[in-house]
Amino acid sequence: MRTLKFLLQKEFRQIFRNKAILRIIFVMPLMQLLVLPWAADYEMKNIRLTIVDHDHSLGSQQLINKINSSGYFLLYAYSPSYQQAVTTLDQDQADIILEIPNGFERDMVKENETTTLIAVNAINGMKAGLGNAYLQSVIRDYNNQVRTEWIQPARFSPQKVIEVTASNWYNPLQNYKDFMVPGILVVLVTMVGSFLASLNIVKEKEIGTIEQINVTPVKKYHFILAKLLPFWVLGLFVLSLGLLIAWLFYGIVPVGNLVVLYVYAAVYLLAVLGLGLLLSTYSENQQQAMLLSFFLIMVFILMSGLYTSIESMPLWAQYLTKINPVSYFIQVIRIVILKGSSLADISQQLVITAGFALLLNAWAILNYKKRS
Amino acid sequence: MKNHSKNGKQKAKRSQQFYSLVKKEFFHIFRDPKTLIILLGMPVVQIIIFGFALTNEVKNSRMGVLDQAQDASTQALISQIDASQYFEITRYLNSYSEIEQEFRTGTIKLALVLPQNFDADLQHFNKAQAQLIADASDPNVANTLINYASAIILDFQERITANSSLPYTIHTETRMLYNPQLQGAYSFVPGVMAMVLMLVCTMMTAITIVREKELGTMEILLVSPVKPLKIIIAKAVPYLLLSMLNIASILLLSVFVLQVPINGSLLLLSAASILFTITSLSLGLLISTATDSQQTAMFISLTGLFLPTVMLSGFMFPIENMPLPLQVISNLVPAKWFYDIVKAVMIKGAGWQVIWQETLVLTGMTIVFMGLSIKNFKIRLS
């Protein structure tokens, strides 16, 4: 036990001696937590529109006014022809073209129907789908308005109508930050934990001091524990700081119990540190350790469901998320903070993460022994 | 005349110097095959995984139905929703509290509630109610699902009134330009290209100079008569060649494995990609000259660049929706400019005249990064 104490003292001193990296460990993640969640708003507000109005009638003017006042669209330009309008899409100045045909109003009155053309930049399918849906709904609204104005009020609506109401649970104000901030926090905790742990041991390897430790009577598990514990503490500290920021700057107060979150995070960090440890036993220098952990962490983070939903992924990718510790923490932090899940609700994730922690650390220790 | 030949000799000597420096850096890289394999293999694996798996499309979302009517109309509506590719009806619920239960465990993301007299209302009053309840802990998905579900319901509504044609109808015809099949890969592959190239290239050079500092070999370089600019460029050249291999493998994978076509000029796309890797390599050099340990350098290049690149380059979240200060900050992210170039050239088939501004910005960034690296390097020299 005394050995462990001295080793821990040594490790902590080494960490605190390096002021530059210490500052980076705290300042950089927290800065990002303050800045990046603002980027994650997917609500469509400023869809840029180019209009080709061949009709120049009262009707087409009314439709355009309706679109302008809907709040979703920014009128980029009027274009004399469809061809010219397409160049505004080509050059990324506009997102959608609405072409109102010649005789728009006349056809509507005489033929009872007319057709407008919508052309969408569809490189981003989701954005295109939403933009198109919004524009169509504005046109439909205008259409209904025309009918009520022009038709003699009938006894009842000639059209069968299903009125759809929508409600949003857990996040009724649709605050995207409530969803993103906890997720980003998980990423930061993960990066700090895994990168630092993987670099730390391999650094001793690279400069040769690990040989010195290997010839002392220090037990392997003492050595490993002494390497893990400081970063475990640092990781929990970053998490606490992040939660504090989430509360102070974003007003996010967990619906669930903080104890549940910390119990899970404590186990999770062991898993992540175990991963770092494992990678450092496999690498010969800091560059290798860094590249390997970067590679894995990047895959873990982008496939964790933080940005894109897991159920939209192909099946093989969904299986991949089952062996991805980050995806479990993302789930846990979101449901605990937003839905108030209890320890029982997250027991499955907790057990699996504990399994990762055991497996990765055991593997690392076995591999470490082999090499010394 | 004599002077002239002396100059020539010196010139030859200098280029000899540069050549041997580059050779030395190459030896460094080839001596460590493990790193080399990681550097070349990493982009390949990442492009494949991310290219296939990342998508903003919403497909097969699990949905629950609380059908209090259970009549012909509601059944028809439900089966129409189930038949669409967006939804999969996985739960038939009996009460509102069951909806909550399903949301809590995350088994469904959206619930449709149809009231008891749905069919009767529709037949007699021409008006019926339907309620959509979304798990809005993810507002993005919630919004999209509500939009899609509403559109399907509207479709259903139009179908049942198809016979009684309505007066004054404005039809809409939609054309999806550039990506008629609405494939997710068309927006994600260019983004993944920008992200992977940027991070891998920056990391490659981020530790090159600081490692020499840490190992003490830097002193030797500093006392040699070689100019700082040459030392720095010699460090970057081998990595530039490695990056070109990475560009080639990424482009091949995009076209042949991920099926994203190159509609514009391959030459232009390659040239832009090389410019972008040079930008990233110089950013790595800048980090390397500005830090004093490998740990710091790597920590900055990963933790500092990863999230901003993903979130501010425009491929995950549209930049035009961001608050103004963030739109300004996003201009500092090199990947943003490259993402625009790739989208324009690769997918829209655009030419030089569309991307010259982005190219200019990347060139400017490269010059700034390089200049700052040399400045940092000189400070150490004195």
Distance separating the two termini of chain A: 23 Å
Question: How confident overall, as mean pLDDT of chain B?
Answer: 86
Name the chain pair with the biggest interface and residue counts per chain: A-B, 121 and 122 residues
Average predicted confidence as pLDDT of chain A: 86
Unreliable spans of chain A are: none
Radius of gyration of chain B: 29 Å
Helix percentage of chain B: 55-70%
Determine the strand fraction of chain A and express it as a percent band: 5-15%
Outline of chain B, from the CA principal axes?
A: elongated
Largest sheet of chain A: 4 strands, mixed
Low-pLDDT windows of residues of chain B: none
Number of domains of chain B: 2
Give the strand order, joined by hyphens, for the main sheet of chain B: 2-1-3-4
Helix and strand succession of chain A? HHEHEHEHEHEHHHHHHHH
Domain ABC transmembrane type-2 (chain A): 132-371
Keywords (chain A): Cell membrane, Membrane, Transmembrane, Transmembrane helix, Transport
Protein name (chain A): ABC transporter permease
GO molecular function (chain A): ABC-type transporter activity
Structure explained in plain terms:
The complex is a heterodimer of chains A (372) and B (382). Chain A has two domains: 233 residues, no CATH class; 104 residues, abc type-2 transporter like domain (abc type-2 transporter like fold, 3-Layer(aba) Sandwich), CATH 3.40.1710. Chain A is 66% helix and 10% strand. Chain A contains 14 helices and five strands. Chain A has a four-stranded mixed β-sheet, with helices on both faces. The model of chain A has no long low-confidence stretch (mean pLDDT 86). By secondary structure, chain B is an alpha/beta fold. Chain B has 16 helices and five strands. Chain B has a four-stranded mixed β-sheet, with helices on both faces. In chain B, helix 1 packs across helix 10, helix 2 packs antiparallel against helix 7 and helix 11 crosses helix 12. The model of chain B has no long low-confidence stretch (mean pLDDT 86). At the A-B interface, helix 2, helix 4, strand 4, helix 6 and strand 5 of A face helix 2, helix 4, strand 4, helix 6 and strand 5 of B.
